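Batch job 17 of 40 flagged for manual review because the log was empty.
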Amino acid sequence: MPMTEATTNLMFEHLRAIRADIARLRDDGAEIKARLGNLESGQSHLVAAWAESSVRMDGLASRLDRIERRLDLREAEPA
């Protein structure tokens, strides 16, 4: 009978260790998800800023073209 009790105690000890490992893995997974969400958010902000800059550059190019035309600063365009 003592052998069965020792075996049972050993089994419970292993189960407790497995549950602790699973809890740590769950916590790590939650942290990874949160960090990934932060990265995705940051990336979306960068893409939005890049798109806004692109639109502004297009507007500046149009304005510069208009100024060059009005001041007759453009070289003759090839036919």
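Reviewer: the log was empty due to a logging misconfiguration, but the result itself is present. The chain has a mean pLDDT of 92. Unflagging and moving on to job 18.
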